[in-house]
Amino acid sequence: MRDQIEAVIKAVSSVLYGKQEQIKLALTCIFSQGHLLIEDLPGMGKTTLAHALAKVLGLDYQRLQFTSDMLPADILGVTIFDPSSNRFQFHPGPVFTQLLLADEVNRTTPKTQSALLEAMEERRVSLDGQTHPLPSPFFVIATQNPVTQQGTFPLPESQLDRFLMRIELGYPDARAERELLRGGDPRERLQTLAAVISAAELEQITQACSAVKVSDSILDYLQRLIAYSRQAPEFSFGISPRGALALLSASRSWAYIDGRDYVLPEDLQQLLGPVTGHRLRAAEDIGGFGANALIQQLLSQVDVVG
Amino acid sequence: MKPLFQLTRSSMIWLLVSILMVTAPYATVVPGWLFLLAVLTVGWRLMVHSGRWNFPHWSIRLVLLLLVLVGLLFELRSGSAMVITVSLLVAAFLLKLTEMYRRRDALVVLYVALLLIVCSFLFFQSIPMAFYCLLSLVVVTACLNTVYRSQQNSDIWRPLKRSAVLYMQALPMMLVLFVIFPRMGPLWQVDLNTGQSFTGLSDSLSPGDVSRLTRSADIAFRARFDGDLPPENQRYWRGLTYDRFDGRRWSRTELQQESQTSLLTQFNSAYQDYRYQIVMEATGQQWRYGLDVPLSFPATMSRLSDLTLQGGEPLMQRTQYSLVSRSAPVREPLADGHYLRYLQLPENGNERARQLALRWASEQPGVQAFTAQMLTFFARDFRYTLEPPLLSGRDSVDQFLFQTRQGFCGHFASAGAFLLRAAGIPARVVGGYLGGEMNPLDGALSVRQYEAHAWLEYWDSEDLSWHRLDPTSVVAPLRLEQSAAQLFSSEPSFLADSMLMRTGFLSGSLLKQLRLRYEALNYGWHRWVLNFHEHQTGFLRQLLGEISVIRILLLILVPGGLVLLAVAGSLFIRRGPRKDPLFLALQRLDKHLKQRGMQRLCGETPGQFFSRLGQVFPSLSDEFTALSRCYEQISYAENSDPQLQQQFRQLINRCCTQIPQS
C-alpha cells in the first residue's frame, strides 16, 4: 500500500517539479476525505496539480472554470421539461463527479459559491425539493487567486471552513525551474499520466489512515494548541472544534503517508498551517490575509510535552 | 456619563429578599414610620429597575434625608439612644437604595445589611433568632454572589446554593474560633434597656405587690445544682430585704457591704452546703438571687449585711454566676444602729396591732413564745388567696389582721414583721422566690415570677441569730410543698395574662412536655452559647494547661496552618508533574543537559530536540537517534513493551554519563 502512495507521489512529481511537500499535503487531504483549496498566483501550477491528482488517483473528474456570471444551476444541474415524455427531467450538473476541479473559485459571486456548500459538506445536492446524492468518493479541489487580486469575491469564512486544507505552491526552486524549462510543456506530459491506484485501493488507504493511532500526549498537545489559540489576544477567534477534528484526521493521514501507524507532534506542527491557516484570523487582520505568522507563534509558544 | 450599573434580575430578587429579611426583625424596634420609607425606597428602586422611573433627583434625596433626620430627632425624646442609632442605620440603609448606581453602591448596601444582621443581636438573642440571622447571612451572601456575577444567569437558586455551601465550609472554622478565640471585653457598652420595664421584685413592697407577679410565668432565674437539691420546703431564694415601714409600704435602706470572712466563722458547719450555678434574667436591678444563706460568691458580687447579694451594676442582660449556700441561721451581734433600724415603726397608726403585740409579749415573755403565738394566730382565722380584698384604710395592718383576714404572702410577712417590731423584736421582711420547677431533661430548676414570695426574719437575742419565719407556711402549708402552679391552679387570676401558658403549666399534657423541652434547650443555649465566655477560661485551661497569648495564638495558628498546608499540598500534587518513570528519566537527562546550557525549546518536539542533541554531541549521535525512536514508541505509539522502557532508561543513563562535562 505504501508503495502505491510512493508511486502516486512520483507520478505527480513528474508533472509538477520540486513540489513534493505540496503533493503530499494534497494527498493527505484526499486520504482524509477533505476538500482542498489551492491558493496562489496565476501560473504557479495549481490546475496542473489538481489535474495530475485526478488522473493518478483514477477518479472520474470534471473541471469547472468559475466566472463572475456563473449561476448555481451551472454547477448543480437543472430540471427541464421534456415534451417527449411529458415530464420534468433532471440534468445533473458538473458537480456530479468524483473529483471536481473548481478553478478560480473566488471569481464567481457568493451566490454561486454557496451552491457548493451543501455539495461539499453533505455530499449531496438538493434541487426542486429533490435530493440527489453525489458519487462517492467526492472531492473538491478548488483553486483561487490571492484575495488582493482584482475581480475576486473572497470566500466567506463558512465556505472556507469547508475546506480541510489550504495550501500554497510558491515558486519552484532553481533546480526544479531549470528542469521545468528544459522539459517542455507540462500539459503534454499530463496527457501521458495513467491511474496508479484504483478506487478500491483509495478506499483502503482512507480506512487505514483513519486507524492511525493517536496517543494521549498528542491529544494533550492538540488541546493546548486549541486553548492557546482561543485565549491569546492576538487571535480574533480560536480554532473551532471542526478545525481541531480536521487537524487530527489530517495528521493521521500525514503520518500514514510518512509510513507510521502513530501520530507524532511533528505531524501536528507540519499540518497546523495548512489546516488552520484559513480558519484563523489575527485580531488586527481586518482584511483576512491569513494567519501564517500566527501559526508560527502558536507553534513556538505552546510546549509539545506537557 | 458613565454607564449605570444594571443589577441582573436574580440579583434584584435576592437584594429584595435580603432587605426584607434584614429589616424584618427591626419592625418591633424602630419607629413605625420607617416602614413607609422602606416601601417608598424599595418601590422606587423597583420602578428604576423596570425602567419606568429614573433615580430620584438629588434634591428629592436630600429632602428625604432631612425628613428622616428630623423624624429621628423627634424620636430621641421618647426612645433610647441605642434604638435611635439603629433606626438611623436602618434609614440610611433604605435611603442608599435610591442611589445605587454602581456595583460599589450595591456592595455598600449589602455590607450595611451584614452590619444590621449583627446589630439585631443587640435586641434579640434567642435560638430562633440566631438561626434566622444565619439564614439572613446566607441570603445576603447569595446576593453578594449575584452582584459579582455580571452575566445574566437564569437560575435563581444557584447563588443561594453556592452561598449555603460556602457557609457549610466555614462552619468548622466558626466552631473552632467560637471555642478558642479569646473573648475580649467590650470597648464600650450600651445601655439597651433604659426605659424598658422588667417583671420581678421591686425595691419596695406593699402587701398586694407579690400577687401581681403571679400573672406572669416568665422565668426569673434558673439554677443547676452540682450535688443534692435542697428539700422543696427549703428552697427560699433570697432577693432583698425590706427594713423600713411607713405604715403601708416596706422599703429598704442602703446597706454596707460586708466582708466575706467575717461571717464565715459564725456558721455552723453541721448544716449542709449547696453548690449551684444560676442563670439570672435581666432585672434592671442590682440585687442577685441566691439560696439562703450565700457562703461564697463570685468576686464581681458583694454580700450586704442583710445577707443579700449585690452585683456591681444593674443587671441588664442575662448573666450566669456560681454560688455556695448553707441553709443555717446566721449569728449577728446587732450593733446599736442596726438594732434600732430593725425595730423602726411609724410613730403611730395600726394601734390595734400594736396592742395585740404588746399583749402577747406580756402574756408570755420570750421570742420563741411570741412567734409561736403569732403563728397560731395566723393559722386560726386567716385565709390564703391571690385575690385579697383591697386594703384601703390608713391602718392597713389593722385592717388585714382584724377585718379582711385574707391575704397573700406579702400580707402575712408584712403584718408579722410589724407585730414583731411592735413587741420589740428586731425583724425584717425578705423578698425573693420560693420553690422552682425541676426540668427533668436537663436537671435545672426554673424559678418563675409566679413563685415570688415574701417572708420575714427575726433576730433572737438569746442566740444572737437571725431566724427565718414564714407565716405563709402555717396559713397555706401546701405552698411550701407543692409547686406554686398546682396550688394556684384554682385561682382565676393565676397566669391570667396568657391562657396558653396557663394550660401549659397546669396540665401534665404534651404542651407541658414541649415547654420543658424548649426551656431545657434554651437553658443550654444561654449557658453554652451566649455565656460561653464564662466557661471558656476553664475549657482553655484544660486544653492548654496555662493560658497565655502565645499559647492561644499557637492554638489558632497551628491547626489553621495545617489546614492551609494540606490544601496547598493537595493543589501541588494535582498540579505537579506526572510520576511517570519515563518522565523522571527524561528529567534526569534534562538536568544534565542544563549544565551544558542545552534545553529543549518551547514548541520543539522531542524528536527535533534529540536530533539537535545528536548534532551538538556527535559522539552520542547514535544514542540520541535510538532515544528518539524509543521515546516515539513509548509516548506516541503507546508501545508498552517493558523491554522498550528498559532500553530507554539505559540509553538515558548512557547519555547522562557520557555527555562531556564542560
If you had to describe this structure to a student in words, what would you say it looks like?
The complex is a heterodimer of chains A (306) and B (662). By secondary structure, chain A is an alpha/beta fold. Chain A folds into two domains: 2-201, P-loop containing nucleotide triphosphate hydrolases (Rossmann fold), CATH 3.40.50; 211-301, Orthogonal Bundle (Helicase, Ruva Protein, domain 3), CATH 1.10.8.80. Chain A contains 13 helices and eleven strands. In chain A, a hairpin with a 4-residue loop joins strand 3 (77-82) and strand 4. In chain A, helix 2 (20-31) crosses helix 11, helix 11 crosses helix 12 (265-276) and helix 12 packs antiparallel against helix 13 (292-301). Chain A is globular. Chain B is of the alpha+beta class and 662 residues long. Among the domains of chain B are: 9-156, no CATH class; 204-347 and 424-498, no CATH class; 581-658. Chain B contains 25 helices and 21 strands. In chain B, the strands form five sheets. Chain B has a six-stranded antiparallel sheet. Chain B has a six-stranded antiparallel sheet with strand order 9-3-17-20-21-14. Chain B has a four-stranded antiparallel sheet with strand order 6-11-12-8. In chain B, helix 13 links the parallel strand 15 (383-384) and strand 16 (406-407). The longest helix of chain B has 27 residues, at 549-575. The radius of gyration of chain B is 39 Å and the shape is elongated. At the A-B interface, helix 12 and helix 13 of A face helix 23 and helix 24 of B.
Main traits of this protein?
heterodimer, A: Rossmann fold, Helicase, Ruva Protein, domain 3, 2 domains, five-stranded parallel β-sheet, two-stranded antiparallel ribbon, 13 helices, B: 662 residues, six-stranded antiparallel β-sheet, 25 helices, 21 strands, 51% helix
